[in-house]
Amino acid sequence: MKRFELIAPCHFGLEAVLKREITGLGYEISEVEDGRVTFWGDEGAVCRANIFLRTAERVLIKAASFSAVTFDELFEKTREVPWEDYIPEDGKCWVAKAASIKSRLYSPSDIQSIMKKAIAGRLSGKYHKDWLPEDGEAYPLRVFLKKDKVTIGIDTSGVSLHKRGYREVSGKAPITETLACALIMLTPWKKDRILVDPFCGSGTFPIEAAMMAAGIAPGVNRSFTAEAWADLIPKKLWYEAVNEANDLMDENPDVDIQGYDVDPSVIRVARRNAREAGVDHLIHFQERDVRALSHPKKYGFIITNPPYGERLEDKKDLPALYQAFGESFRRLDSWSAYMITSYEDAERYFGRKADKNRKIYNGMLKTYFYQFQGPKPGRTGQRKEQQE
Q1: From edge to edge, which strands make up the β-sheet containing 365-372?
Q2: How far apart are CA 354 and CA 260, in angstroms?
Q3: Predicted confidence band at 381 (pLDDT cuts at 50, 70, 90)?
Q4: If you placed Cys at 171, which of 78, 116, 190, 201 could pair as Cys (CB 3.0 to 4.6 Å)?
């Protein structure tokens, strides 16, 4: 089997979560950088990483890494890469995205154009063609420049991995599926513990938690660009990865997962999304104001993405909303609460300083993941609570 170095981009600040996922799949980490984790794997790893990773944005095959400070150097070093090992004669190859940080080459459009010419020149020479048709399968590239170091990845995923396929319609300010999953993984929540999202919106937190509880691989019901690369990754490996995912599935785990929102139209969207994800039977969605947040059992978890006040006219409502949230939480004896928000006065109006606070970038928006930790249940107490 071929051995690849694979790159998995992720949200800034959540590299450790993704690293644990990759290690859990049995792969060796080669490098961890801001916003991405690199690891070693064979052709089967491409399939399994796309299907099983919950917090990666995509999976790239690392084609090359080198330094370049001029466009001539970028052209020549790109041309030296053995593109014929990856791209067939009729393959369509282009730089889908180029990003540059603290590098002398900083124009994305120029980087894309020059690298495309270099790749076309290399492949034309290797295939002894004056002109390449490029009417075959797609091989999109993603290029990162940081401090003059160029890293080239061939995108095996296509559509970003956060698009699981269940969320065609979203509520206001939706959180991505990959970010929601990473935040759940940052908490001690397990499927035998209660989980409530009082600002559930389109249902992403409850749905991702239910998929985790049921062992549903996030990519099992979608397609990937690399599925068409039969010469590079045998089709049978995709089938084997899907079969592995199906074998690990538990359709009816014993869970208590709930999602509330004050907007009835949003609750309808959340229920529809849950049906599409195949977990609607595992989640109780309800129209409910955060002021009415309650639960008879102890040691539960709140994991949520409350309103940030994205529009100026909404900001005036935030103090009362966070205050109400804090008051409801204090009535939930022994519970823990985790919320991601960009609202700077969140702790002040929530009425408690967070036990832990983690800075996370949600796209370009700087947010904080506030962690208000309750007591851990004792074994005897936990059994008693489960019996009630």
Answers
A1: 283-287, 257-261, 195-197, 301-304, 336-341, 365-372, 356-362
A2: 23
A3: very low
A4: 201
For the cut 60, the answer to whether the pLDDT of residue 313 exceeds it is: no
Whether the CB-CB separation of 184 and 336 falls below 8 Å is answered with no
Task: Determine the pLDDT at residue 310.
Answer: 63
Helices (H), the chain: 15-24, 43-52, 71-79, 108-126, 177-185, 204-213, 235-247, 264-277, 312-315, 318-331, 346-350, 379-387
Q: Which amino acid is at 58?
A: R
Beta bridge partners of residue 285, listed in sequence order: 259
Q: Is 228 helix (H, G, I), strand (E, B) or coil?
A: helix
Per-residue tokens: 118: 């270099």
CB 150 within 8 A of CB 77: yes
Give the C-alpha separation, 195 to 211, whole Å.
13
Nearest to 269 by CA among 288, 285, 251: 285
Phi then psi for residue 231, to 5 deg, are -75, -25
> Is a pLDDT exceeding 60 seen at residue 258?
yes
Q: 256 near 283, Cβ under 8 Å?
A: no
Distinct helix (H) and strand (E) counts, the chain: 12, 14
pLDDT at position 355, please?
97
Spell out the domains of the chain, with CATH numbers in brackets. 3-155 (3.30.2130.30), 177-216+249-387 (3.40.50.150)
Is the model's pLDDT at 75 over the cut of 70? yes
State both tokens at 220.
Answer: 């099992």
8 A C-beta contact, residue 67 and residue 78: no
Phi/psi at 80 (nearest 5 deg)?
A: -75, -15
User: To 5 degrees, how large is the angle CA 171–CA 172–CA 177?
Assistant: 65
Joined tokens for residue 372:
């208000």
What single-letter amino acid sits at 59? V
- Distance CA(178)–CA(218), nearest Å, equals 9
**Residue 301 forms beta bridges with which residues?**
195, 336
Q: pTM of the full predicted structure? A: 0.93
Q: State the Cα–Cα distance between residues 45 and 241, nearest whole angstrom.
A: 9
Q: Tokens 């529009």 appear where?
A: 311
Q: Are 60 and 144 a contacting pair, CB within 8 Å?
A: no
Average pLDDT value for residue range 236-251 = 97
Pull the structure tokens for residue 4: 């690849």
Go through the chain and tell me how many residues it has: 388
